[in-house]
């Protein structure tokens, strides 16, 4: 589903080039969930952006659904991202002037993949069924993040990329949102790559990798064992 092969990425800074990823390889199968941990500045978001085709590596390959992202033009990458990738960030990025229902179906409509029955099911499963005609400012933080998750899943993506999706929520709300997210990911069969600082959040996922000094390591399998 998602493959990174020997991916390197540097940024230009006033102090010179900053090497963030150095020969990183990983494979994520359909339906698999992977937590990506690491200290602040270790390159987690950079890796997520490369996986989404929001940026391209300096060297190496990112393959998404068998397409090599760096061989695509930016509009082609945007098209593939709309169809195959759901994105959830710490900030909810909802459209204030659109209702809950319209926010939820927005990406799916843009991708030409709007399925009203699936959107209704998502609203119900996310506990937003009674709030479909409200506007984002009339929702709590947890409800807004549930809506952002619904928007990402409405397109039935093959891959869900989540960057600290519960980072803005209190612990109880974060647990509720995470449980809902993992249940929906399982129901929809998509692969999940989630960046998190929290071992609690990472624990229920199939695997956990840590990024440090530009490299991936500390692999944990579903049973908590390191290898
Ligand atoms: N566009 C850019 N230009 C220059 N430097 C950048 C750019 N984007 C990221 N960086 C730098 O690359 C490094 C990795 O950033 P990244 O956001 O991937 O880290 P992170 O592990 O996600 O951090 P955090 O946990 O704090 O969100 C950081 O030192 C950051 O300052």
From TrEMBL:
Gene3D superfamilies: P-loop containing nucleotide triphosphate hydrolases
Pfam families assigned: ABC_tran
Coiled coil, from the record: none
Domain ABC transporter span(s) in chain numbering: 2-227
SUPFAM superfamilies, A to Z: P-loop containing nucleoside triphosphate hydrolases
Any one GO molecular-function label of the UniProt entry: ATP hydrolysis activity
Keyword Glycoprotein found: no
A GO CC annotation given for this chain: plasma membrane
Keyword terms, alphabetized: ATP-binding, Nucleotide-binding, Transport
Keyword Nucleotide-binding carried by entry: yes
Protein name: Putative ABC transport system ATP-binding protein
Source organism: Franzmannia pantelleriensis
């Amino acid at each position: 589903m998602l493959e990174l092969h020997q991916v390197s990425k540097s940024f230009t800074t006033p102090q010179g080039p900053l090497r963030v990823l150095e020969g990183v390889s990983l494979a994520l199968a359909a339906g698999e969930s992977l937590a990506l941990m690491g200290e602040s500045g270790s390159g987690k978001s950079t890796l997520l952006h490369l996986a989404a085709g929001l940026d391209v590596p300096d060297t190496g390959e990112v393959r998404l659904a068998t397409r090599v992202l760096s061989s695509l033009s930016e509009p082609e990458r945007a098209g593939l991202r709309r169809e195959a990738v759901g994105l959830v960030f710490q900030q909810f990025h909802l459209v204030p002037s659109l209702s809950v229902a319209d926010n939820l179906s927005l990406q799916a409509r843009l991708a030409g993949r709007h399925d009203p029955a699936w959107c209704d099911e998502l609203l119900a499963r996310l506990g937003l069924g009674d709030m479909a005609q409200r506007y984002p400012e009339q929702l709590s933080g947890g409800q807004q993040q549930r809506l952002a998750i619904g928007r990402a899943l409405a397109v039935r993506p093959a891959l869900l990329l989540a960057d600290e999706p519960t980072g803005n929520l209190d612990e109880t709300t974060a647990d509720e949102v995470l449980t809902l997210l993992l249940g929906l990911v399982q129901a929809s069969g998509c692969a999940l790559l989630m960046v998190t600082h929290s071992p609690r959040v990472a624990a229920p996922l199939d695997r956990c990798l840590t990024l440090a000094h530009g490299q991936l390591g500390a692999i944990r399998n579903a049973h908590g064992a390191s290898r």
